[in-house]
Write a structure and sequence with these properties.
The complex is a heterodimer of chains A (112) and B (113).
Chain A: E1 4-6, E2 10-13, E3 19-25, E4 31-38, E5 42-49, E6 56-57, E7 64-70, E8 73-78, E9 87-94, E10 101-103, E11 107-111
Parallel strand pairs in A: 2-11
Antiparallel strand pairs in A: 1-3, 3-8, 4-5, 4-9, 5-6, 7-8, 9-10, 9-11
Chain B: E1 5-7, E2 10-14, E3 19-24, E4 31-37, E5 44-49, E6 55-58, E7 61-65, E8 71-76, E9 85-92, E10 101-103, E11 107-112
Parallel strand pairs in B: 2-11
Antiparallel strand pairs in B: 1-3, 3-8, 4-5, 4-9, 6-7, 7-8, 9-10, 9-11
The chains are: A mainly beta (112), B mainly beta (113).
């Protein structure tokens, strides 16, 4: 059974803090993705990675960075959290056959 | 920029009714996927359609990919409360470097017992 795990289900941080969100997949997938999901805006792609140490900006990369040092792990970093980054963050991975994406359970981040 | 328009945005029906959700675009996709998401959880893949005109069935759910691979539909027969959730369609572009998917904004379905 495919598995994508995220480090936290719920997280509360203060404005200005540095925040790390971790994602691990056990499917040996090449591609990994970070999205945020907000009511009325749908899923928006922040960053993705198609290989170890490779990263590409998505639609809304401002205020975020990513790291992929190992194939199975993709980290999202909020350098200085702001209240407008309060959201549901979803990680996903996919292979290079059908590019079907498998999602983690999500992290509900609240920045106060 | 590829866009996927889903309709309706919200749907509230009685248990036992049938329904159809639509996913439309002016762009051609190499494949299209449907996901269901429950509150507080990540989306779960239901099906992938690849060939124009393809029809796939998953119990009471029927998925169709348009002949021109620009649109898709999801039909649910005799809806059950367990079908409640957010349904998302997502398409993969035809370019060689198309690693990511374009997602629709979703259809929020409520099935009332």
């Amino acid at each position: 059974d495919v598995k994508v795990t995220q480090s936290s289900r719920y997280l509360v941080k203060r404005t200005g803090e540095k925040v790390f969100l971790e994602c691990v997949q056990d499917m040996d997938h090449e591609n990994m993705f970070w999205y945020r999901q907000d009511p009325g805006l749908g899923l928006r792609l922040i960053y993705f990675s198609y290989d170890v140490k490779m990263k590409e900006k998505g639609d809304i990369p401002e205020g975020y960075s990513v790291s992929r040092e190992k194939k199975e792990r993709f980290s999202l970093i909020l350098e200085s959290a702001s209240t407008n980054q309060t959201s549901m963050y979803l990680c996903a991975s996919s292979d290079r056959n059908l590019y079907e994406q498998y999602f983690g359970p999500g992290t509900r981040l609240t920045v106060t | 920029t590829q866009l996927l328009e889903q309709s309706p945005q919200f749907l509230s029906i009685q248990e036992g009714e049938n329904l159809t959700v639509y996913c439309n675009s002016s762009s051609v996709f190499s494949s299209l996927q449907w996901y269901r998401q429950e509150p507080g959880e990540g989306p779960v893949l239901l099906v992938t359609v690849v060939t124009g005109g393809e029809v796939k069935k998953l119990k009471r759910l029927t998925f169709q990919f348009g002949d021109a691979r620009k649109d898709s539909s999801l039909h649910i027969t005799a809806a059950q409360p367990g079908d409640t959730g957010l349904y998302l369609c997502a398409g993969r572009g035809t370019g060689a470097g198309s690693y990511q998917l374009t997602f629709g904004k979703g259809t929020k379905l409520s099935v009332i017992p």
